Amino acid sequence: MQDVQTNLAIDPAVLTNIYRQMARIRATDKAIQAGLSSGRFFFTYWPMTGQEAIPAIISQLVTPRDYMVTTYRGIHDQVAKGVNLFKLFAEAMGRIDGVNKGKGGAPHISDPGSGSMLTTAIVGAGAPIANGLAIAAQARGEDRVTIVNFGDGATSIGAVHEAMNLAGVWKLPVIFLCQNNQIAEYTFIPDYTASPDFAGRAAGYGFKGVKLDSRDPIAFYNGMKQVIADIRAGKGPIFVEAITQRFGPHAGIGDSKDISKEALAQAKAEWPVTRTRNLLLETGTLTEAQLTEIDDAATAEVEDAIVRALACKITPVEETLIDVYADPTVPPQRGVYPVRAEETAPTGETKTMLMAEAVGDAQRIALLKDPGVFLLGEDIGDPPGGVFMTSRGLEKEFGKKRVRPTPIAEQAIIGAGTGAAIAGMRPIAEIMFNDFAGVCMDQIFNHAAKQRYMSGAATHVPLTIRMIVGGGLGGTGAQHSQSLEAWLLHTPGLKVVYPSTPFDAKGLLLSCIFDEDPCVHLEPMALLRSLKGEVPVDDYRIPLGVAKIRRPGTDITLVTYGWQVAQCLKAAEELEKDGISAEIIDLRSLVPLDYHRVLDSVKKTRRALVVHAATEFCGFGAEIAVTINEELFTTLKAPASRFGADFAPIAYSREIETNQIPNAGSIAARVRKIVKG
Amino acid sequence: MSTQLLIPRLEMSMTEADLVEWLVADGAAVNEGDPIYTIEMAKATQDIPAPASGTLKHIAATGQTYEVGTLIGEIS
């Protein structure tokens, strides 16, 4: 390389390495397209042809320690980041030896070894998660850069805006890398935004935005070099609009039919892969023979990967329930009712605490115990220390880095929690009322919940999400009083707990925080600041999946949880007067679910009613009742049934609210009917 | 070594496609990447590039619907 032109604004060796990555991406793309068009293998492909230069160049500025998040159109990003090609192809083909055991597939690659942390098929959803990875790096004092890739289409979605705002306010070391390929799936820029200056949007969130043209590889390299240096120097987030052009269709192979022939011809003429190759040749950096050698090596590497991937076993059905959780006994299964040991009663000093104080105490213990624990959520700082004062005093004690009041942005909150958890922290995210779950449901059920499974356990999410649930105080209305646990319970990958006492709230929350899977801790509004109880001051854990008999009885089992436990206990007192003995079982943890103790109780009482504050129709009660009926059909004196709220939004009227949800009187009335036939 | 041409699955919803047209004559030479035939699925047409270079052999007739995975041609 001694005779090379010296006025290139890049080290020729770096340019050579960039081309090497371009060649690997190009060979991968070609092999996928050839494989699909010849029927050699089948999978859905979202081609990135035309966009190769972006990750090829970035690959020379980052290491595997740096985090990357990308999208389903990110095969080029994966190749350049260093995901093993055999494992990548095996994954795309759904094989057990894939990087994610064939459970995530091409659109859900996670490969922490190369720094490819998460790949999402939900447009824009990676941005909030990237913030979480950046929080972890920042909190640990590391100089890692997090780069989140997304297309221009993602600039329209809320998650990206929430993420940019949060990154700005916390000065996170994250690059929002918009690969502007000029088309959002099938819709072009003028049709989906009146604000096409994407880089300019960063200013609106208080940080720098730059536009870099990837069709000029040397300028793009130098621009990115500065951006990455600024991020490592702790100057806060940067939005990079990387100009590029996609040649192919949204999905499939070949050239796009949506892009005009002229535009496509121009894009191909400006293709940075050809430009880089020509540059290396023209400057005398490499000879044609040397370039061909690079191309051939890339083709051989890809072919070897495909041959080996095709020889691997399709991920078998035995894997279905593996990696849903760390513990394969957690997913509910018909006929399988694991017996989990009860907690040992903690000894030592106790203190009378409100449930809200018990929740605060659990978080305080976790913060003291593990530097990876941090809190984030709306209004959790002092004052007010949470709207129900569940984190009162914690920001004062631990500071803003560990108790982080957030913008009102639930997607940003849950995404940040998920990302930090993937990086090994133990975040506790509060979204205030469970009614706000709708705003961030994508982050909860598509990302936090599924990440372990989709990554074949290459990653997991030890995140705790706290939500206030239910009404019962009167006057909080239809958007602050719901009981939405069924939404969460319908999502494989989440654990859901629902305490009924201050003692349980502390012990369950501590178990959630130190669990390896995402847990939702539901905190009943009706009890948080009204129910007091004796709570041990030390650390103790209540195992998830262990129900508790609150009152022994012989005639019927009332299966319940949360704030309905107290209503059932009251009903049982009334029923006692009529000579009906009701056993009350408090589930405490909804998933994992303790069917073992429930069925044991009903075997004895031979009648069962599941009671919850949530809407009865399609509720959790129906699920439990049908299992009892299936398992104990011949034992039962009456069919097991369920009792939940009427099928109406929670009313503002106190009279309606009190009556639309089961209460001691209506529960007792239902039980009398069941027992007396 | 010859390369078989099977009706590819190009979209998640795709189960079959109409072979609309061969863009290269039977027995003619093709280069890898050249469009060689057009298929129509779900009202959208798509030109399919050659997965290899060589001589194209037509096996299936145009104007008919074929299931994904059907052998329609060969490049040798």
Structure overview:
The complex is a heterodimer of chains A (677) and B (76). Chain A has 25 helices and 22 strands. Chain A has 677 residues and is of the alpha/beta class. Chain A folds into three domains: 12-313, Rossmann fold (3-Layer(aba) Sandwich); 350-536, Thiamin diphosphate (ThDP)-binding fold, Pyr/PP domains (Rossmann fold, 3-Layer(aba) Sandwich), CATH 3.40.50.970; 548-676, Rossmann fold (3-Layer(aba) Sandwich), CATH 3.40.50.920. In chain A, the strands form five sheets. In chain A, strands 11-10-12-13-15-14-20 form a seven-stranded mixed beta sheet, with helices on both faces. In chain A, helix 4 crosses helix 12 and helix 6 (158-170) packs across helix 15 (410-422). The longest helix of chain A has 26 residues, at 12-37. The radius of gyration of chain A is 28 Å and the shape is elongated. Chain B is an all-beta fold and 76 residues long. Chain B has one domain (3-75): OB fold (Dihydrolipoamide Acetyltransferase, E2P) (Beta Barrel), CATH 2.40.50.100. Helix content of chain B is 0%, strand content 53%. In chain B, the strands form two sheets. Chain B has a four-stranded antiparallel beta sheet with strand order 1-8-6-3, with no helix packed on it. In chain B, strands 5-4-2-7 form a four-stranded antiparallel beta sheet, with no helix packed on it. At the A-B interface, helix 1 of A face strand 1 and strand 5 of B.
| CATH fold-level assignment of the largest domain in chain A | Rossmann fold
Helix share bin of chain B:
under 10%
- Class per helix and strand makeup of chain A: alpha/beta
Biggest chain-to-chain interface with counts:
A-B, 18 and 25 residues
For this structure, the CATH topology of chain B is OB fold (Dihydrolipoamide Acetyltransferase, E2P)
Rounded mean pLDDT score of chain B: 91
DSSP summary: helix tally of chain B: 0
| Number of E-type strands of chain A | 22
Q: Low-confidence parts of chain A, pLDDT < 50 over ≥5 residues?
A: none
Overall pLDDT confidence of chain A = 96
CATH architecture of the largest domain in chain A: 3-Layer(aba) Sandwich
User: How much helix, percentage-wise, in residues of chain A?
Assistant: 25-40%
**First-last Cα distance of chain A:** 94 Å
Main sheet: strands, sense, barrel of chain B: 4 strands, antiparallel
